[in-house]
Amino acid sequence: MIPATPVSVRRRIRRTGPPARPARLTLIAGTAVLGAALTACSGGAAASGRAAGAGHTAASSPAPDTRISVNLRGTAATAGKPVTVTLAAGKLRRVTVSADGGDALTGRISTDGRTWTSARVAAPGTAYRVEAQDTRGGSDSAGFTTAAADRVNKLTLAPGKNTTVGIAQPLSIVFDNPVKDRAAVEKALKVSTSNDTEGSWGWLRDHSGRDRVDWRPREYWKSGTRITLDADLNGIDSGPSGGWFVRDYATTFTIGSSQVVKVDLDRHRLALKRDGRTVMDVPMSAGTPGGDKASWRGTAVLMAKEGTINMRSETVGLGHTYDKMVDYSMRLTWSGMYAHAAPWNAAYFGVANHSSGCVGMSDADAASLYRQAHVGDPFEITGADAKGTVAEGNGYGAWNVSWTDWKSRSALG
């Protein structure tokens, strides 16, 4: 086939007659198509002279599409979900999701650069502002507000913040409302220790009847250990009838000296051991055996040093047996077992168990123990004269559960 003569060449050919009409139609038609192509490609801008002379056009690139889309929208967005920000085209460089009156949500950009996902979920009743920048300098913003919580769950933490406690003190959390989604809650509870102590969460029913979760080490804490809990619960739904958590919680505490109180119900004696050395060994009288007045055995943990308090028998289901002001009171269980001064019972110290369930001593001995004991010290109670073993929720009775059984109580397996 013979190549067609270019238009520019045809214009220089001397003609002896009028040009053929078909050639002129072809030229006009080609110019119309080119113009249409320029308009479609360059948005109506005129073609450069250099490009036209070379037989093609110069077209500017389309403006980058910096629009973002967010998975949560409107003024009643669903809380409890991660925030996902997606760029229409290109790659994200930075995304900021800030909460009205709260901390910004941290997150990560996907490997393809198109999507950013928050590390934490959106909290209920919170307004969020989303700001995004791409790698080409473009930016976009958006905003949304989550629906308010119809029910709020709260909690009580022990031990108190920046306290020093004994070697048996667990981290203990009691919830105001039931916790059905225990796995979601437990994932938000982060425990760190200064020496990588092995431990586990375990769920139980508190003596009050409320849901509770404790973190205890496999063995007693080592003296000097520093423990931190970060409970990142804001935005977590505890499940039906429980409600949402609308704030985070945190506490830090330190383990003091290594002390164990040994209570021998059969020998009627109490000993305080510090770092394995006996520093106190005194006579005492515990609960009268054979009924409800008997003491508990097992490991109880000193919950609080309450000083002088009024003890009344009806508060622990023993009728109108006693109503006394009692000095140097040290609480061991929620059900009312204490170690305290009991001078009225002096005839039985070291001889027999003859109290209404508590471990009684002389004023001097009780004062000495009260001065030296720490909240969190274990009271290891042994002997036959007991009514049973301290339950997990009756104070801090988790030490009476084997390590294997305790780990099985974690909602995370």
Description:
With 413 residues, this protein is mainly β. The chain has 3 domains: 78 residues, Immunoglobulin-like; 102 residues, Immunoglobulin-like (Sandwich); 141 residues, Beta Barrel (L,D-transpeptidase catalytic domain-like). Helices cover 13% and strands 35% of the residues. The chain has 6 helices and 25 strands. A 6-stranded mixed β-sheet has the order 18-17-16-24-19-25, with no helix packed on it. It has a 4-stranded antiparallel β-sheet with strand order 1-2-5-4, with no helix packed on it. Strands 8-10-13-12 form a 4-stranded antiparallel β-sheet, with no helix packed on it. The chain is elongated, with a radius of gyration of 39 Å. The protein starts with 6 loop residues before the first helix and ends in a 6-residue tail after the last helix. 31% of the residues are buried.
Distance between the termini: 80 Å
CATH superfamily descriptor of the largest domain: L,D-transpeptidase catalytic domain-like
Oligomer class = single chain
Largest sheet: 6 strands, mixed
Rg from Cα: 39 Å
Assign the CATH topology of the largest domain: L,D-transpeptidase catalytic domain-like
- Count of structural domains: 3
Write down the overall mean pLDDT. 87
- For the record, the CATH class of the largest domain is Mainly Beta
* Anisotropy-based shape: elongated
Number of helices, where a helix is a run of at least 4 consecutive DSSP H or I residues: 6
Structural class: mainly beta
